[in-house]
Amino acid sequence: MNRVLPCVLMRAGTSRGPFFLKEWLPQDEEARDQALIGAIGASDPLQLDGVGGGSTLNSKVAIVSRSSRPGCDLDYLFAQVGVGHRSVDTRPNCGNMLSGVAPFAIEQGLIPAQDGTTRVRVHNVNTGSRIDVTVRTPGGRVTYDGEARIDGVAGTAAPILLNFLDAWGAVTGQVFPTGRRIDTIDGVEVTCIDAAMPLMIVRAADLGVTGREKPEALDAEPALLQRLEALRLKAGALMGLGDVANSVVPKPVLVSAGDTPDSITSRYFTPRRCHASHAVTGAIGVLSAFALPGTVASGGHRLPGRYPLTLLHPAGRIDVEVELEGRGDQAQVTSAALVRTARKIMQGEMHLPEYVFSRPDETCRSEPAEAPKPVTLIVPTRAGGGNDTMARLIAARLAPLLGQEVLVDNRAGANGAVASEFVAKAAPDGHTLLLGYVGTHAMNPALQKLAYDPIADFVPIGLIGSSPTLLVANVEAGIADVHALVQRLRQSPGSLRYASAGDGTPPHFAAELFQLSTGTRMASRTSQGAAPAVLDTIDGRTQLMFPSLFTASPFIGAGTLRPLAVAGAQRLAALPDVPTLAEAGVQGVEVTQWYGLFAPAGTPEPVVERLNALLNRVLQDPEVVARMQRQGARVEAGPPAALAARVAAELPRWQGVVAQGRLTHPEPRVLALEESN
Description:
Protein name: 4-oxalomesaconate tautomerase
Number of strands: 28
Keywords: Isomerase
Strand content: 25-35%
Distance between the termini: 52 Å
EC number: 5.3.2.8
Family: Belongs to the PrpF family.
Shape: globular
Radius of gyration: 27 Å
Largest sheet: 17 strands, mixed
Structural class: alpha+beta
Number of helices: 19
Pfam family, one: TctC
């Protein structure tokens, strides 16, 4: 088996994945799928051994060849590869990856480029549908540079026009495969539609939500997810798709009113998690249901013609022009056009690991049934920050000791309350754990009323470590030291802005304590987590931040953040020239961020003892210790009682800070879900 294959890695729409010519891959389907599993690194939930991104959005593959279908130029086979499990699903289509097909094919010599623009007709092998794709090719060469902007992607790029020609009924043979535009399943009205992607559409209000919640808030509602999945399974059978328990189609969608008569709000599930933005094919389906009369998503009466419609999703909007023919029950959508962008990231050789070809087929097939249930480590912040980095470091070492997969699940929102509430309500069986820290178990509960008790609702597994807090500045802000900062704030109150990771988080508390101690005032900018807050400071949207050394260390080393002071009792060995705030004349600002592992209350003691023992083994690993030290964190292994004592001491301390500084949130939030509405 050839284990070195040509490959092009592309960002296509809001997805990313490897693009292959069909001839580059093994022609046998089983061997091809094994190659794709190896390319993405599907066996590992982090996908460290491949080019996947640990998410379904980045675990996609496009396979392209000259078309065998008359009137078409290219065949495009889309493959959705598993995240943490060895699977390849070629039943769905992906409109985002589609946007990279024509540029890729032109550059590989499958299609001659025209001067100006080149139109390519693509046959989607998954669904049998045809799409016209128009690409900019000035001088007969593909360009990725341009002025088009799509929500969910930074910067601009050349526009790529996708015009779906016959995506309606492509999978099941009918636009409404049940024969009805509205079905009632378990007392809930749904629309089952096959338009670019088989969908089950439900009014958000019918399931007790607004439909405008953030994805992490919806993901934190297990009852909602379970009900959606139950409806989806029955909808799949009604649509003639059979048992869809192990399939990603039909996709469930929650819809609600848009901002204008020509817009609709959508929350698209993949199918068991809410999409961070929205699939293009899903947008075609939702807007088809919106344009046509008699569905749960219908947006009013429309005569035959072309209509610019808008789908609102968590990351922005997707604008689609649809063409309607016929009236009433005879109305149908005949085409849908929208703009995407793409970019070639790199081109070269893909080196596949030997193990993906060496496992016998029967072993692969029996994995889902025989593999032990994975442990899910819930992280209360977005990917990229210190908490996330620490969680992934621990998970990677803990999994082989447990003999189980350890999946890292980022559930940001409500300053850690979404994740904490989720774990507090989870089954106390050792399969759902929380990477808690000073924010979730001391600061946020001290600041406001929450729907969880940081002591009563959790069992401590063990401390992981701690990291001091720093005062850092944007390198171009002209702030040389703490003295200059205080003088500037006193001369011009509110002239500088600090980055907060959210109310009740360490960066927020440290900034408030600094202002109380110095008698100064700063403006604030709140981000959903430390990682975006750090980026705000680097990019100059804010001038200051109080991150942990664990979070800030890579950026200090790269010279993109300037350390001004340590918010602790002593200087740091890693930054010996950086004074403490006390040395700089600012008293009372000592904030240490600590991290620990928690389980839901009621978790059996033997389970807690085993997890604690294995966690301490991880924390004794020299590589783990060195990695944490390099990034400014100190390992603190110990028994569960040590973590319990830390929480018991820290909670009243921060309650006292809140009372002293009168920092109590003016409108206490009882439920994290309410905050996200």
